[in-house]
Amino acid sequence: MPRDPGHAGTVEPEDVQALVNGTLSVMRYLKMLPGQATMVEHPVWIGKVDTVASDRSGIFYPLVARGTYVEEGMKIGYVTDYFGNTIYEAKAPAAGVVLYICAVPSMKKGDTVANIGEIAKNP
To answer: What's the whole-model pTM score?
Structure first.
């Protein structure tokens, strides 16, 4: 299981710093602050976001982390009943990047398991 599957509301210093740096860079780009904006060298453009929802209630086990690139049909997690029997396998509906993966074990029918961002062909 991934070390840090979905963050579950935690604040990671690297994430905060990326948000601060990005905000300051946008402000420089808009000439709100002096200095040169820093552009992302190889941005990934998301064209569509697919949501994977559980069709069963139970205990969720993620198999991928946020930021993982997945192929269509790839198993991204599973739900067990309270005796450990697998009752649902969550699979990526399309190729893309995992934008969100549930980080808590409790899963109700209809809950979001993951969001997969399909990479845009021509941004």
So the answer is: 0.78
